[in-house]
Amino acid sequence: MQDLRDWIAVLEREGELVRVTAEVDPDLEVTEIVDRTVKAGGPALLFENPKGASHPLLINQFGTERRMCLAFGVESLDDVGRKVSDVLEMQPPSGLMDKVRGLQKLKSIADARAQTVRHGPVHEVVLQGDDIDLTLLPVQRCWPGDPAPFVTLPAVITRDPRSGVRNVGMYRMQVIDRRTTFMHWQIHKDGRADWLATDGRIPVAVALGLDPITAYSASAPLPKHIDEFMMAGFLRGAPVELVKGVTVDLEVPAHAEIVLEGYIEKDELGSEGPFGDHTGYYTAAEPFPIFHLTAMTMRNGAIYPSIVVGKPPQEDAWLGKATERIFLPAIRATVPEIVDYDLPVAGVFHNCCIVAIKKSFPGHAHKVMHAIWGLGMLSLTKCVVVVDAHVDVHDYEQVLFYAGANVDPARDVVIAEGPLDHLDHAPERQFIGGKLGIDATAKWPEEGARPWPEEIEMSPEIRDLVDRRWGEYGIESVPGAGNGGVGKTSRSLRQLLRR
Ligand SMILES: Cc1cc2nc3c(=O)[nH]c(=O)nc-3n(C[C@H](O)[C@H](O)[C@H](O)COP(=O)(O)O)c2cc1C
């Protein structure tokens, strides 16, 4: 898929999109409709007639696992992770076929680099000077306590003024007036680092309305030196096409629906927020930099994309789950004993991380907790729960069982200190506070365990026997029971979200 329009066509073909023709107000009304739709596992919505605006509004494009898989063209999000691990785990080839496969992988990396083209539909309409007008767009005011409308699904493009390396990130933008917004660059983010590295002003471009993989890549927590558009190209299997900005020395996606160009001064800050955030709370007003628009470019009939964050689950749950799955191979490349991990949606991703490990020495769970607290954006995780390899980390009842059964809180709980998410309102001081580690693995004698009891399991012969004879018992009404018993993961939040 090259652009948002290809994606809308896919959604429509798959019965995943509803066009809303009624006039609907981007001021709060859209949020209430979307909140109900997301929580019911409903479709993407294209509001064709948003009140007071000249452009349609697309929302809930990522709101279910099925749509997220359609976006990536996969059966399961783990397939995307496998594509990444294929490259990360490349070994010297041992035969001709292996060499061919290796070359294909290398080619897919080489072809991932964004390509500059001379013209793009994003320049079909070019507004400059007094013609720039953000009120043309159906920018949502999401929650009653929000002081203004916020652009919520942007891909914000900057360059590191020292190295020239591009950064693309998703940061909300509170509208100040027709030609100015805030830029919500949180303290740990690469976009903010680019801004802080400048002496005067930094050019900024904001792409709105992209193919779904490129849009996702703006939210991906990549290391600073890796270009998000390159990752998008790799995951799409086709490079992202870029054109030169009209008023900024930056390249912008040629097929974006809308691009906002402008600059941010090093020393110009204003009071941004409050904002009804993905924490489920309003984040307090704080000083953030101000983005001045120098051009607004669009395709004819441009479609404006938006997302609502708030008390989970919301649409961003599936952007986060995509990240969880896609980054598993990279995490395992650094901490190979990790079998799997889960960032519960209700834990707002950074509040809780459940991780299963192949335990091979005393204290191993503690090593992994500290590894998580040292890994990229996972370092902001407040609570890490470590379980043994056989535990399904996505089945929260199973995890709770082992956290209860295997934990002596006097011995197995670690309280540490470290950086916390910018938005976390709980710690005494902003940005820094406590960390909780829970070692829920089976304990070894060296870890102070008395003889560890055996877990109760039925013998395989009896399970087979009952599977075979289930029909004879006359209790078919028990769902799933005749086929190995009710699935272990049947009640996980993950499955509830899959509705
Ligand atoms: C819907 C959505 C909204 C987001 N809003 C913000 C935001 O306002 N500020 C911020 O710093 N990060 C925000 N994030 C998270 C960043 O996009 C994410 O951390 C990304 O990796 C940042 O890129 P960077 O590390 O290149 O700066 C948001 C993520 C999503 C999915």
Low-confidence stretches: 488-499
The tally of strands reads 23
What is the CATH superfamily label of the largest domain? Electron Transport, Fmn-binding Protein, Chain A
* Main beta sheet: 9 strands, antiparallel
Please tally the helical runs, counting DSSP H or I stretches of 4 or more residues. 14
The hetero molecules present are: flavin mononucleotide
Give me the CATH architecture of the largest domain, please. Roll
- The end-to-end span amounts to 26 Å
Question: If you average the pLDDT, what whole number results?
Answer: 94
Amount of helix:
25-40%
Q: Which CATH class of the largest domain?
A: Mainly Beta
| Oligomeric description of these chains | single chain
Helix/strand-derived category reads: alpha+beta
Structural domain count: 3
Reconstruct the topology from this structure.
Elements (H helix, E strand, L loop, with lengths): L3 H10 L3 E4 L8 H11 L4 E4 L9 E3 L5 H8 L4 H12 L7 H15 L4 E2 L8 E4 L21 E2 L3 E5 L6 E4 L3 E5 L2 E3 L7 H7 L4 E8 L3 H6 L10 H9 L4 E4 L6 E3 L4 E15 L2 E2 L5 E2 L2 E13 L5 E2 L10 H19 L3 E5 L9 E6 L6 H9 L10 E6 L7 H10 L3 H4 E7 L12 E8 L20 H10 L23 H5 L2
Parallel strand pairs: 1-2, 3-18, 4-12, 20-21, 21-23
Antiparallel strand pairs: 2-3, 5-17, 6-9, 7-8, 7-11, 9-10, 10-17, 11-14, 12-13, 14-17, 15-16, 19-20, 22-23
Helix pairs in contact: 4-9
Can you describe what's shown?
The protein has 499 residues and is an alpha+beta fold. It has 3 domains: 302 residues, Electron Transport, Fmn-binding Protein, Chain A (Pnp Oxidase, Chain A), CATH 2.30.110.10; 113 residues, UbiD C-terminal domain-like (3-Layer(aba) Sandwich), CATH 3.40.1670; 32 residues, no CATH class. It is built from 14 helices and 23 strands. The strands form 5 sheets. Strands 5, 6, 7, 8, 9, 10, 11, 14 and 17 form a 9-stranded antiparallel beta sheet that branches. The longest helix is centred in the middle third of the chain and has 19 residues. The chain starts with a helix and ends with a helix. The structure holds flavin mononucleotide. Flavin mononucleotide binds next to strand 8, helix 6 and helix 9.
